[in-house]
Design a protein that fits this description.
Keywords: ATP-binding, Kinase, Nucleotide-binding, Serine/threonine-protein kinase, Transferase
Oligomer: single chain
Number of strands: 19
Organism: Saccharomyces pastorianus (Lager yeast)
Bound molecules: adenosine-5'-triphosphate
Number of helices: 22
CATH topology of one domain: Transferase(Phosphotransferase), domain 1
Protein name: Serine/threonine protein kinase
InterPro entries: Kinase-like_dom_sf, Prot_kinase_dom, Ser/Thr_kinase_AS
GO molecular function: ATP binding; protein serine/threonine kinase activity
Strand content: 5-15%
Low-confidence stretches: 20-49, 412-476, 478-539, 542-612
Shape: globular
């Protein structure tokens, strides 16, 4: 009797399953009807004819380059037990946890003689929500239009191929990132035409993912103590994570890689090597300059990709939160996205809560863009570095990885013998980089004046705003807090920073329609694809660029100046913050006037600058207890009139 031939399942290496892009019908596939471009996606026809290339289509066009790169890492499954206790040279152990795409098991490698982690990813996603119907149909359309498939293909089969493509990209990424102790190192991958899963083997991180939630703010988690055995505190542990992640991101930067999903659950702790490592590169992209792909439109596609919302909402940078309310792209430096997410992660460690968390995803985005953190500035070096420089809403002023690396002088061994000898040139380079116009210079002087005063009043205060930064050497965050003395220039916020200009009058964001895989040439439709990250109850999102318009308010210098102090605007912000934390009505639903009325119960000392016509009369009418601010306003007017501060 003739044995029925075994079904071949597409693999990472297409040559293992000849014509793997053809239709492979399996028993469960037959349950889902084939999707044919003509019958089910007629509404897409017109846009398909105008499809523009995207970052992902360029990756697909360069699949041969990707396959060449990953081939040495992909091994055939040669031996596996039915009960899945072993696979090739690996003896499988306990489960380490599950993510959206698969689950991870501890395993022992008899060839390496060590414990490893194996991520097992089902080729056909177990979670059908992972890919939207639109995405799947468009992908089938694309393959058809490029002649990669000739017959109809079921949705299940398409999803499987898409999933395998996603795995290839992740493996490609990690295969390029194997030279840093701060990135979870790929060992190899296992696959075969008979395997329903792809097995990705990497270094084992024995302390698991970074934990931050604790019952009480001051609690020290056992995991933290194992990573920082001596003098472990919230602050020392956070410094350790800051230092390791800075090194990790610096490495990614050197390789042109933007992670796009930095968050605690993607940071794994290795208590043997004693380091925190970055993991999960499923969302990452590389800059075109560092990819060996050829495409005339690559730079443009990269820019468009950078402006898609990808990642986990609570960790997404403000420049990505405009949600289709603007025609322009807000993200120009993708590496700053990771800096922001690192800032959010460190904030979680320090404060035992997320800095921006809304009733729903859009509320969260609104808060990320609008809610100020200025009240969290407290003069502590580490805290203020995170609040003022990593969580700077204006990406152009947010600290870059190079500057962060310069100020995070890692271990005593790396420190120069005489910190004061550090080149002043370096110090000047770590200032916010925007060019200094006269107004900016004025504010610089003003802040300087204020901070000097403050420093005299309170010598213990390591304030970021200290003026005489010229002579201040950078500081080692490892030093005792009393000895800390960051270069104040590094920590100084600029007048353009969010603390100064966050506008409460912005309208609630609008979301247009979505399309992920393609953009038609008329504009961009988008797909919002929400995934549930089970472990952290953080929602992961992928979304493409957006097209409608935004009403960005430009703050006048006088507004900014008034906001410097405990001004009405700031009072309003405070009560606005409280309102947020009470978890009551979303402010995005209210007009600016309503917000003002509802959230500002305190009597106003100074009118909002927007209503002021005659500043001189305004100054003369101000209360005595506001003299200092009035002095500032006077100085400003003097500057405006005479060009002098
Ligand atoms: N190399 C590793 N060493 C130790 N534990 C690991 C390793 N990789 C993953 N884990 C554990 O397995 C769990 C699941 O990992 P996985 O990468 O699938 O989750 P994830 O990061 O949430 O993925 P995704 O974001 O794609 O859903 C993690 O929470 C982590 O604790």
């Amino acid at each position: 009797m003739e044995m029925p031939s075994r079904q071949l399942i597409p693999t990472l290496m297409p040559e293992w399953t000849p014509s793997s892009h053809q239709s492979y019908k399996t028993a469960d596939d037959s349950a889902s009807p084939p999707i044919t471009p003509t019958s089910q996606v007629s509404s897409f026809d017109s846009s398909l004819s105008q499809m523009k290339p995207t970052y992902s289509t360029i990756i697909e066009e360069n699949i041969d380059t990707i396959l060449d790169r990953i081939r040495p890492f992909v091994k055939k499954i040669t031996a596996s037990e039915q009960n899945k206790k072993t696979i090739n040279q690996y003896t499988l152990g306990a489960s380490a946890g599950s993510g959206q795409f698969g689950h991870v098991r501890k395993a022992y490698s008899s060839t390496l003689n060590k414990v490893v982690a194996i991520k097992i990813i089902l080729k056909k996603p177990w979670n059908a929500q992972q890919y939207s119907m639109n995405q799947v149909m468009r992908q089938i359309q694309l393959w058809k239009s490029k002649g990669k498939i000739t017959k109809n293909m079921s949705g299940n089969e398409a999803m499987r191929l898409m999933n395998i493509g996603k795995c290839r990209w992740e493996i490609y990424a990690v295969s390029r990132l194997r030279d840093s102790v701060h990135v979870v190192r790929l060992i190899e991958c296992l696959d075969s035409p008979f395997s329903e899963s792809i097995w990705i083997v990497s270094d084992w991180c024995n302390l698991g993912e970074l934990q931050w939630k604790r019952d009480n703010y001051g609690d020290i988690l056992p995991q933290w103590q194992r990573l920082v055995p001596f003098k472990c505190s919230v602050s020392t542990f956070s410094k350790k994570i800051l230092r390791d992640m800075t090194k990790g991101l610096q490495y990614l930067h050197s390789q042109g890689c933007i992670h796009r999903d930095i968050k605690p659950s993607n940071i794994l702790l290795d208590g043997i090597e004693n380091v925190a490592k970055i993991s999960d590169f499923g969302c990452c992209i590389f800059t075109p300059q560092l990819l060996p792909f050829k495409s005339a439109n690559f730079e443009e596609c990269f820019q468009r990709e950078l402006n898609k919302i990808v990642g986990t909402p609570a960790f997404i940078a403000p420049e990505l939160c405009h949600l289709g309310n603007s025609k322009r792209d807000f993200v120009t430096d993708g590496f700053k996205l990771d800096i922001w997410s690192l800032g959010v992660t460190l904030y979680c460690l320090l404060y035992n809560e997320l800095p921006f968390s809304g009733d729903n995803e859009f509320d969260t985005y609104h808060k990320i863009m609008e809610a100020p953190l200025s009240l969290k500035v407290n003069g502590s070096t580490l805290n203020d570095l995170i609040i003022k420089r990593l969580l700077e809403k204006d990406a152009t002023l947010r600290i870059g990885i190079q500057d962060l690396t310069k100020i995070i002088l890692p271990d005593p061994m790396d420190q120069p013998e005489h910190p004061k000898d550090i080149d002043q040139d370096i110090l000047s380079k770590i200032k916010p980089t925007r060019s200094e116009g006269p107004v900016r210079r004025f504010f610089g002087k003003l802040i300087t004046k204020k901070s000097k005063k403050k420093t005299l009043e309170n010598v213990k205060d390591n304030s970021f705003g200290s003026a005489n930064s010229k002579a201040t050497a950078p500081v080692y965050i490892d030093a005792d807090s009393q000895e800390e003395a960051f270069s104040s220039t590094v920590l100084r916020s600029s007048p353009n920073s969010s603390d100064y200009c966050s506008s409460l009058e912005e309208e609630a964001v609008q979301v247009t329609d979505f399309l992920n895989t393609f953009c038609d040439s008329k504009g961009s439709a988008n797909i919002l694809h929400v995934k549930n990250d089970k472990r952290n109850t953080e929602m992961k999102v992928e979304k493409s660029d957006s097209s409608s318009h935004s009403s960005f308010k430009v703050p006048t210098p006088i507004k900014a100046l008034i906001r410097l102090k405990n001004s009405p605007v700031e009072n309003r912000n405070k009560s606005y913050d409280n309102r947020f934390s009470d978890g009551l009505t979303s402010p995005s639903k209210k007009s600016a006037k309503e917000k003002h009325r509802v959230y500002n119960p305190e009597p106003k000392k100074l009118a909002h600058s927007g209503n002021i016509i005659n500043f001189k009369a305004y100054i003369n009418s101000a209360d005595k207890d506001r003299q200092e601010m009035v002095e500032d306003v006077r100085t400003y007017l003097n500057f405006a009139d005479n060009g002098q501060a």
